[in-house]
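Anyone opening a protein record will find just a pair of labelled lines. A complete record is shown below as an example:
=====
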Amino acid sequence: MLLSSLLMTLAVVLVGLSPPPILIDRFGSNRATSILSTLSSLAAAFEIILSPIFGSLSDSIGRKPVMIMATLAMSIVNAIVGASFFSGNNNPAILVSLSKLTGSMVFPLLFISSSAVVGDVMGSTPEKMGSFMALSMSLSSLGVIAGVTTAGKVLGNTNINSHGILYFASSASAILSALVIVVGLPETLTHKKPMSNTNLLQKIKESPISASKLILGRGKQIRWLAILLVLQSFSGAMGDLFQVYSKDVWGLNANDFSTFVSLFFGISFFSTLGSSLLIGGKGKIKMNLRSFTMLATISSLFYPLGACVSYKASLVGIILGFFASSQSLGVVAQIMATSTSTKGISQGELAGERASLIAMTKVIGPLFYGSLYLFGTRIRMPQLIFAFNVLLALLAVMVAFDRKRELWV
């Protein structure tokens, strides 16, 4: 599963730098920002509808088939986009937007089944789950570094059909991921839940409710864990706006931006690898989930604080906030373990509810950040988006530190 996740991350990242410049060249910076924000929100809305369905399918037909379907969907769409570039269409904005939409939906849905696999195998040991998820994230960081570095170099070569090459390479990586799943991943679902058409329609009708189920329907402890997870994750909904910001405010070109992202995920690789050792370690170097989450959440303050000041200050913030990328590990592991021990719900259903909740932030987030950025630009304070992230981090620290909530019982 680790190798398939690495390959799928590579498939997504190889084409991650393409949509913003393509849409900016076609429509201009402001309209491109609005389009990218709308695409992200639309993808998240579909994710809210599909997450409980994929979670139930994962409990019904198995983890492997769902993962294979997701990877093949990504491969097919990006192959079509790649072919369009080589057919003479130098700016297929509609197809690029379709690929962006598909990738934004497929990757989180793939995470539902992979999370269910982890829950099947390690559901009773939250520290072990946290350690494994940290290791998985560190390998995904390698995929991001490889993908961004490759994309930056290919896009910098004006003598080749760079976008077409990247979309075909992404398609090939997704196919390889599917093959790894077929050959190397055993099915971990032991008791399948039959799913009828009636159940499927019911899941679609209940999909908006599923997004709030962890907060409203799973008890006090999981409610506050879910709120903490939202506070930790909301800044990730900024999405492609950050690439626009880095170009307009910091003056970074595509190669500079890829270098910055490589540095960011290089730190993330060592951070998540270190997190795996800390959470899963023995003796004096081991930290429990509560202590680690507090450390990582405090770390998340430094990067947005630096970004409020300047590009160079943001680099310092990335280094000082070493564990920031791992801040949600303990929360997710605790939710999975708590639900398994006290609620007895299936891991597929739980993963679907968690994905729906995060997807809800992706519906609101891009529109919010896009509006905040445009407002900040008008008043000559574009860094307002990072000031808001500082506020989120402070709230997350307050929740993580509050002993009265009994999050880590």
In short: The first helix runs from residue 2 to 14. The chain has 18 helices and no strands. The chain has a mean pLDDT of 80.
